[in-house]
Amino acid sequence: MALEFLSKVWTALLCLPVVGAILEKLRLFFGDADDQNILSLFAVLARYRNTDFASFLRSHHEALQKGHETGDYVPGVCNYYRLMADLITLSSGPFWHFVPMTKGLSRKDCHDKFHHTMTDILGAKQGDEILEFGCGFGEIGRQVAKISGASVTGLTMADEEIVGGTERIKKAGLEKQCKMVQGNYHQQPFPDDHFDKVFGVYTLKYSAFLDKAISEAARILKPGGRFVSYEIILTDKYDKDNKQHRYYVSNISDSTCMPALWHAQAFRDAAEKAGLVAKEEVDLCAKPEEDPWYSCFERTGIFYLLTSNVVKSLIRFTELLRILPKSFTEFYDECLVHPTTDFVLAGRAGIVTGSVMMVWEKPA
Q1: What does the pLDDT look like over 200-216, one tens digit per residue?
Q2: What is the pTM of this model?
Q3: Does a structural domain hold residue 2?
Q4: How many domains does the chain have?
Q5: Does residue 1 belong to any structural domain of this protein?
Q6: Does 34 fall in a domain?
Q7: b/e string for 223-236 if b means 16 or more Cβ within 10 A?
Q8: Whole-angstrom distance, CA of residue 99 vs CA of residue 114
Q9: Is the residue at 62 inside a domain?
Q10: Structural domain of residue 277, as residue ranges?
Q11: Which pairs with CB-CB distance under 8 Å and at least 24 residues apart come from 69-75?
């Protein structure tokens, strides 16, 4: 009986490339390649079976420790996304940020709705020069460009995102409207008063120097121009003396190698210090037809899959049998279970929000 079991395990090991191809086809058959799909987890297991997770985690922990000591989290963020950029795209599609989950709409449709909302709030129009800083692969900027006809520059530090973003621009036929530039948003590689609009989505959470980041955004913005920030932030319900609150929030930061999340008031103070004038602050989930920003994980069942002790035990067992690579269990818990489950639990507790749009203008 034991020999038969080992034989089946060995056969499965040999057939993993075939299994991976089958899982990829099933994932596409049962869901959209550009959206979250519960089968994506299994596609991840197959595709990353030969990855050196032990080395990745070692470099991740070293970079995080250095970030805590120096306040410079840039190397850690770059290291994190060297592995995670493609993995997140595989599991969640091109849109990594949270948006209100409108009742009756798919997640993909909700993101499309968000792109129109962002375009409207920016006031983007043909002839505008717009910057999306910390843009990743520049997905949102390309959508704003398509909707408005504006020209959009994407700023990112990661080599992989410059290459990937440029490829996506060409694929979309937007070479005349969009481009990627490599640089750090704490030291913007652009002259003063250069852009009509500037926006960032889920990027200032990686900054340990919020005043500097927002002052740079204000510097390159033309007088009369608009700055829009959409971030994951702490709410007034967060209690630093609450052990459970600290646990959720620290997991969100440490899992992604970024500094502690900023409170909404820190953004308001930094913008005022930079000479920007507050115009609007709106929670996009405030309307009754909108489900919470984190509910995308509940809709697809990913949250329940990641919190399943049966799945965790199965992953641990398959790593012991060397079907999954060494240290995958640790990676699974640290970088997949967290921060996904912490977003949901912190969102339910109301201590973290990911759906507030903050808008300022530079005095003319």
Answers
A1: 999 999 999 999 999 99
A2: 0.82
A3: no
A4: 1
A5: no
A6: no
A7: eebbbbbbbbbbbe
A8: 7
A9: yes
A10: 51-364
A11: 71/208, 71/209, 71/259, 72/208, 73/206, 73/208, 73/257, 73/258, 73/259, 74/157, 74/184, 74/206
